[in-house]
User: Fold this.
Amino acid sequence: FNKAFCLQLIPATENAKEAWQEYLKRDSTSPWAEEARKNLQSLESQQTKYLSADELEEEFLAAFRTNNNEKAWELLSKNKEIIQEKYLPQKIAMSLVKSDGTKRTELLKALLYAGNIERERINDSFVTDLGKFYIGNAESANNLLNQAQTATREGYQLCLKADFTQAYSKFQFARNLMNQIGNVWEAKIIEIYLAYCLNELKRIDESLEIVKEIAEFSKANKYKWLECLSLYRFANSQMNLAEYNAAIINFQKSAALAEEIQDAYSSQRSLISLASLYSTLGQKKAGLDYIDKTFRKMENSDTSPRQKWRNYFTCLDLFASVRLNELSKFVAKETIILAEQIKDPAFLSLSQTQAGIFYTGIENYSEARDLFKNSLANMENLKDKSSQQTLKAYLFLKSANLERKAGNYEKSIEFYSQSRRIKDSPYFQYETQKGTLLSQLSLDNETELEKEIPITIDLLEKNRKEILEEQQKNSFFSNEQTVYDIATEWEFKRGNYEQAFNYAEISNARSLLNHLLKENNIPLKFQEIRSEIPHNVQILQYTVLEKKVLIWLISKDKFLVKEFNIGSNDLGKKVETYLQLLIEKDKNEDSRNRQFQLSRELYDSLIAPVKDFLDPGKEICIIPHKSLFYLPFQTLISPQSDLFISEYIIFYAPSTNVFILCTKNARQKISSQETLLSIGNPSFDKKAFSDLQDLPAAETEANNIARFYNTPQILLNDQATKDALQARLKTATVIHFAGHYLVKPEQPLDSGLLLAKSPGDINNGILTNSELIQENLSSVKLVVLSGCQTGVESYLSGEGLIGLSRTFLIMNAPLVVASQWKVDSDAAAELMENFHRLRRQEQLSTAVALRRAQLEMINSPDGRFKEPYYWAAFATFGCLAEF
Assistant:
């Protein structure tokens, strides 16, 4: 099945024929074999000649002469690759300027014909208006038009050779002439390429300024195709600025507009860019979905070799990262074949380098070395020396990674040094430094490690400051966590426990901390932390390393660290299994016993090493790490069969630094009177979310807890709209939400609260994390989220918890009560009513009140909700607070 799936994605080339033939040799009898024969026959019968620009123009003129509207539209919609002169209206205009007499008249009529078709089919008058210009154009202007169009074509050729400086000059000259003549339409096409050159020359702000003006011009005149181009170019510039969320939005808009106007070329460009972007952000499934959409577009259009190459080159890395190895082999080969057809040495060199990276990944080092060698030879044919140097530095970096993976550590260090000497940019500085560190670690070279670790961390921190977008910051720290782990373990082994803790803490929740600090401040170090810790709290912080867990216990009067030997993967599997058993509602005896056993094992691993040093008179702030963010510590069982929650008051924080900041924030809000905003069972769109149930218990919950507050604001059912909630967020000090929370694990900023739909709301009433982050809840002291998975919907290795609780901490709420899994609505309603009663009537703090409410459920005479599934989902996140 995998083999057949892979082969189906190969384009109609000789490579595909060979692949199907190979498959049939291996399997000639299965149902897949019949499908293979059909595909092979289809390929052999196809005439896959790719039309040149001149041939394309002739075919269109033939359709025009016979008034074949369907053929004409097919040619117009499937051929819009401007840089190859395949955009028919511009190609016809260029031919028109060079013609006279009858030929000129025919070409002018053909241009108007093209405009009429586009206006009728997609309601776009760009080509019609261009045709009108040529009707009114005096032949005396032909000389200037010819100069402008010649310079434009020269600019295209220079772009293909990656000579963007010269291309920019050509386009600037052409644009100025076009505007002088009054041909604003072709001037705008040229400006798209001016922006492209500026983008490649890293003059991003200038590029954005041009594209923004084109977008406004397009909208004003309803030129959909031109707007589609401007959105794509705008997104490209945003991607170069690392403004990834904004880039995603504009690529999606461009793709939607390309779909509307049936522009197969622009559609593929936007879709494959989205695939690349989501892959960069670590969201592999979303990336694969966009690759699938790109391939479907390729099936139904005359895709140029350049665009095919771009599509396959982009998807190779993603396929390899999710271990689609058979598919990756064919795609790697296909990119090289396409690059050879295009006769572009940069494309060929890049294809060979990326193929080498793939073969390194599957440990075929001999094949990888050959590909790297060929790539280096092809680089010598590059005319642009700057591009050549960058590609060489990249190739040597990947060669170094190959040798390190193959165990040739000394050779890898030589390659890292070569790469750094060629290109001393921040990227190459950091990547080569990190690789050198990993090689020295494998060599166990203590002298070099002592020198390399602080240099690597310093470079890593500098890179962090250059990353602009929230989600990418999170992904960056997740990817680079290994470096912090190495530094932590190194200092721990040497007995430098304070420095080891500093390295462990510096990577924790840095994006969140940056939000709270409002600038890129350095986190507090150990001694500063120690001075800030309140007297009545003890911090239990975990660092999960590859083969052990470090357990830090810190308070005003105590500091110690213990280690427990357990592999990171083994710990993660144990936590995952335990959680699955915990949230299973109807367990058999075997499941109960296994749950009990795992709970004891996790207690022995994570609590027992420091149990004798814990102070029962102090609250415990637990700071998990990696997979431990999923673990409800309150459910762990001691050797005496006591629940951890029965012995201690606990709450959670993403990092020690975040805990200290939130605690300071909470102190400023102690004296404020409490006003409640209570939201219950919003009337969401049942058609849009047919898999979700109405929550009558949540409505009762929201009403019942309101009884404990003076003059509460209550939003129920149809009243609980997105607009109504946003309007009241800043007027309350306590916010309670009882409803659905929609989780998008691969796009956490798009996860959100599901509310009633307001008139004109195009987002189905979803209030997303990205929208919430824009708010500043300066008066809010407590947020209670009585929904599913509002506490931890996922975690990243460095950043820690990702979820709605984190969002409200960013919004300046110091304390959040939230859930760690899908909760039972009736149990949640009972727990929350008791929690608010204890807070208000007995004046207990949030952490104490939640613990008491949970213990009441455990010890209730009816025992209805005593299982951890019902009560243990909820936890307190943030700080130590008196309220």
User: Anything to note?
Assistant: The chain has a mean pLDDT of 88.
